[in-house]
Design a protein that fits this description.
The protein is mainly α. About 55% of the residues lie in helices and about 0% in strands.
């Protein structure tokens, strides 16, 4: 249903942090985090419309992913000053 897809896109758009990445709920109120970013991008791909694809600020998403890279080679953090574990590598590498 096109209307449902559009509502999903509009909600996810409200969760996008102005500096990149997605929060677990509408911005402001939560930190951009790798887990909801991974989920948001996957949901937008599943919606699969131009509206969904165009809602992603790719430049800021790229910057967000670069900020997630840890000091150790191949490591990622979940959010600013956040934890680093295997979830981060999977989300950062696939996000």
């Amino acid at each position: 249903d096109a209307a449902l897809g559009s509502r999903v896109v509009n909600f996810i758009r409200r969760c996008q942090d102005p500096r990149g990445g997605y929060c677990g709920g509408p911005y402001p109120g939560q930190l951009p985090h790798l887990a909801p970013t991974y989920a948001a991008i996957n949901a937008l791909i599943i919606v699969g419309t131009e509206e969904a694809y165009n809602s992603i600020d790719r430049d800021k998403l790229y910057d967000f992913l670069l900020r997630r890279r840890g000091e150790d080679p191949g490591s990622f953090t979940m959010h600013d000053d956040g934890e680093a574990d295997v979830r981060c590598v999977l989300g950062g590498g696939c996000g």
